[in-house]
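User: Predict the structure for this protein chain, please.
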Amino acid sequence: MTDSVSNYATMSVASGLQGSNTKNRPGSWFEAMAHAWGQVLDSQAVRITELSDQVGTGGDDKPSVMAMLTAESLRMNFMANSESTSVDSVGRALETMARKN
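Assistant: Here is the predicted structure, written as structure tokens:
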């Protein structure tokens, strides 16, 4: 999970996306990190939606599918909390550094 975020952020910065403040391209490494978290969370939301559709419209309410839906939902909760904590922590650190300069 966080490896995907780290890899995306590293690739975004390394590929020279700084300063290209377009809609899908982050302009700084901090924005790249937030964008990467967004991509990972979007991907997880798709997994949950697919499982939910299996149960809701497909009538596939077997315990195994329900267990996977629960597990993926809990993973999403963990990932969302991790995203919030990491972005907040880095933001506070940047704020502290800005005050010291």
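Residues 63-100 form the longest helix (38 residues).
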